Amino acid sequence: MQRFFIILTVISILTASFPIQTALAANRPQSILVRIVGSDMAVRSSFSVVTATDVGGMSVAVADLGRDGTAEIILGSGLGNEPRVHAYRGDGSEIGSFLAYDAAMGVGVNVAACDLDGDGTNEIITVPMRGGASHVRVFDNFGKLADAGFYAYADTMMDGVNLACGDMDGDGRAELATLPMVGAGPHIKIWKYSNASMSLAQELFLFDATDTRGVVGAIGRNILRVSAQRGKNHETFDVKLSTDKKIVASVPQNDDDALGATGMFFSNGRTYRTTSNAQVVDADSFVRSSYANDHGSIVAAAGDVDGDGRTEMIVVDSRVLYGGNTEEKSIVVDTSEQRLYAYNNGLVEGSFLISTARAPYQTPLGEHKITAKVPLVHYAGGSGAEAYDLGWIPYNLRFYPHIYIHYAPWNTTFGYTLSHGCVNVSLENIKWIYDWAGVGIPVTVQA
Question: Is the per-residue pLDDT at 20 higher than 60?
Answer without folding.
Answer: no
